[in-house]
Amino acid sequence: FEKLTGGLKKTRDSMAKAVDSMFKSFTKIDKELFEELEEILIMSDVGAVTAADICEQLKDRVKEKGITDPALVTAELQGLIADMLRGGEALKLTTKPSVILIIGVNGVGKTTTIGKLSANLRASGKTVVLGAADTFRAAAIDQLGVWAERANVPMIRHSEGSDPAAVVFDTLSAAKSRGVDVVICDTAGRLHNKKNLMDELNKITRVIAREAPGCDLEVLLVLDATTGQNALNQAREFKDAAGITGIVLTKLDGTARGGVVIGIKNELQVPIKYVGVGEAIDDLQPFDADAFAKALFG
Ligand code: GDP
Where does GTP bind (predicted)? Predict the structure, then answer.
């Protein structure tokens, strides 16, 4: 929790403190208070749609509970945001093997996240094998190799430019013959050509369906919180192009734009599974809606 609080410091300082002191500057709860709240939320990268949703729902709650003191609204807001963020946080990895596909544009933190996630799963007693299916850049394969070593998990690789689906095939074969619990596959971070991306992901998921029929499959979209509204846009685009089951939001530690988490969950209704709060191997946290809201406002 300390790491989360530390990671969210900038967001708390800019968003939550502004909200709290704004509430306290009002003597009664009126239209202006909600208008100012909406403005602060939009400035904090929550997004216009979600900012309006929050104000509407908060108005209802305040009315329902008969709250008249503006200073008490912060606690209501915290509860509302926790409710909005809650649901579907845990990965479903019950089959052997289970598969996690990691998607997202370059630079958002995919490789780092795979390394952290591998270590995380290993710590929970699961065995892991990585598939270096971002074959587009040799550097991506090498970099994933470094994280595989750090997390002490094996990695299946082919040469640069080879077929990503073939890498996934080999990774699944290795997992099955070694009795590995979880297969994590990197993918190339292209969005500029949606059709390419969809074709590639479709081919990969067909291989998974054939080689590990009925397996639990998580498709995790990695987004960089420091990009604010851009992360929200990427989430929209990828949701159209790929059947994502969850979001990993990285680099929360370096940004005042953590409010984007709320916008992504509310608008897309895709669960947030993990947040990245640093560059080290243990800086990935399973998402906890209550802890998140508490770290922001508590
Ligand atoms: P990829 O291109 O998507 O695979 O991105 P990388 O995994 O190579 O990460 C890009 C940069 O972001 C690297 O310098 C990482 O150390 C950094 N990074 C990744 N996740 C986090 C995070 O949660 N917090 C911080 N501060 N940096 C991160």
Answer: 104-111, 186-190, 250-253
Buried b (16+ CB within 10 A) or exposed e, 5-29: eebbebbbebbbebbbebbeeeeeb
pLDDT value of position 62: 97
Q: Determine whether the shortest distance from the Cβ of 254 to ligand 1 is under 6 A.
A: yes
Mutate to test the pocket of ligand 1, among 112, 248, 287 (most ligand atoms within 8 A of CB): 112
Atom 9 of ligand 1, nearest CA residue? 109
- Is residue 235 within 8 A of residue 258, CB to CB? The reply is no
pLDDT of residue 262 exceeding 90, the answer is: yes
Provide the token pair at 202.
């479709």
CA dihedral of residues 236, 242, 244, 249 (deg, nearest 10): -50
Residue 58 in this model has a pLDDT that exceeds 70: yes
Residue 263 in this model has a pLDDT that exceeds 90:
yes
From the CB of 110, is ligand 1 less than 6 Å away?
yes
Q: What is the mean pLDDT of the chain?
A: 95
The β-bridge relationship of strands 272-276 and 217-224 is unpaired
| Neighbour tally for 264: CB within 10 Å | 29
Q: State how far the Cα of 164 lies from the Cα of 136, in Å rounded to an integer.
A: 9
**Does 279 sit in the ligand 1 pocket, CB within 6 Å?**
yes
Query: Ligand 1 atom 11: the closest Cα is on which residue?
Result: 109
Angle between helices 48-64 and 31-43 (to 10 degrees): 140
Chain-centroid distance of CA 42 in Å reads: 20
pTM as predicted: 0.95
N residues, the chain: 298
Say how many Å lie between the CA of residue 221 and the centre of ligand 1: 14
pLDDT in tens, 187-237: 988 766 778 888 899 999 999 999 999 999 999 999 999 999 999 999 998
